[in-house]
Amino acid sequence: MRSLFFVALLAACFALPSTAWPQQTRSKQNGDAIAWQEKAVDYARIMSRVKWTPVAEGMPRRGGQFEAGKEYTGVPYSSVKAEGRYIGFDIFLKTFLAAVENPQSVLYTENLKGKVTNAECYYGKVCSSYTSYALQCAIWYVSRLHGPEHRDGIVEVESQSARAARVGDIIFTPPATKGGGSHIEIVTEITRDADGKVTHVRIEESRPQTTRNTNRSASAFNSHLAARHRKLFRITDLDAWRGDNRAESFLFPNYSEDSATPEINRVLLLDRGDWVPYFKGQPVKFNVMDRDERGITSLAIKRGDELVETIPLSGRGVVQRVYSTCGDYTARCVMKDGSLSKACEFAVCDLAFHCAEKNRASRETLGASAQLGQHEADHRPPEQPP
């Protein structure tokens, strides 16, 4: 698990060249291979069709909070950036679902408003991370970088209409004002009548408060395209469009894990969910819930096969620890009948870079460039649905 999280963290910093990883065969539109458009629809719907129900108040959303006890469909919209974690790219979907079941998790106890522009919930997605996930990218492309001005293997559809739309096409909405946010959507279904005429076009997207699934009539779709100077684009070569940024070259996104139905621990959960990394020195909070009231005597924490600590317990509550040794950890509760609860899994990671002293000048130049790049990133207009 450690290698999984380390690669994910590294991928969040750098787009590693694909030459260092196994190459994918070129996308095929026909033949035995499943067309990438079909995969894109399946992957988009992993995130847009998932159902979840908050177990506590306090999970922020645009204009208020998600209601405890109410079922929602689709992952939350939140531009988490480096403060939180994008679902599917930085954490598993099952990590988010585990955090939902823990009333003491970061979803309910932390708020990104005021820390990150266009952010609310601690875990979430935005339009570009949603489409990039569906289009099998290792790292998301922001919405304005999806089009032919910035990518190969993509063209503007000649007829901007429902009649010409195809599954896998994307719709780009430019900023309404200078410095405003842009938006990206993906076409996931075309409905035709008995004569082959397009009657409806389904669009799926990430926007407040969760992902949105809209099946428009052909005329409504045409009106949607005509508004706000939207453009319908078609990816003609997925490999060329992604370049070296291919999901199959990394361990995240992990579509098989995200599409599986997880078994959420009912005895013990972490403040960040389950199956999740922490940085070295970052507090790890164990919420001992015992939701089935089986009775608990202690909490046992291991790093690999080595027992790190056994903590006596007299009941429910939150236990906090800080770990300075990197590795793969598990935590289990010892129940009153002597059995062990299902394990919570987490990793403790560290990521640091050092330059040799003889490269001081290069390091200082690199540092200045990094500061400039961060300044530009901090002042870059946010992606925000119109």
How would you describe what is shown here?
It contains nine helices and 20 strands. It is of the alpha+beta class and 386 residues long. It has a six-stranded antiparallel sheet, sandwiched between helices. Strands 14-20-19-16-17 form a five-stranded mixed sheet, covered by helices on one side. Strands 13-15-18 form a three-stranded antiparallel sheet, with no helix packed on it.
Report the portion of residues in β strands. 25-35%
Total E-strand runs: 20
State the helicity in percent bands.
10-25%
Total number of helical segments?
Answer: 9
| Domain unit count | 2
Which spans have pLDDT < 50 for at least 5 consecutive residues? 2-32, 365-381
Given helix and strand content, the structural type is alpha+beta
Strands in their spatial order, largest beta sheet: 7-12-8-9-10-11
Average pLDDT reading? 87
Q: Helices, strands, pairings?
A:
Elements: H1 2-13, H2 36-48, E1 51-52, E2 60-61, E3 64-65, E4 72-73, E5 85-86, H3 93-100, H4 106-109, E6 123-124, H5 127-134, E7 154-156, E8 170-173, E9 183-192, E10 198-206, E11 211-217, H6 218-226, E12 231-235, H7 238-242, H8 255-259, E13 268-270, E14 276-279, E15 283-288, E16 296-303, E17 306-312, E18 317-322, E19 327-335, E20 344-349, H9 360-378
Parallel strand pairs: 5-6, 14-20
Antiparallel strand pairs: 1-4, 2-3, 7-12, 8-9, 8-12, 9-10, 10-11, 13-15, 15-18, 16-17, 16-19, 19-20
Helix pairs in contact: 2-5
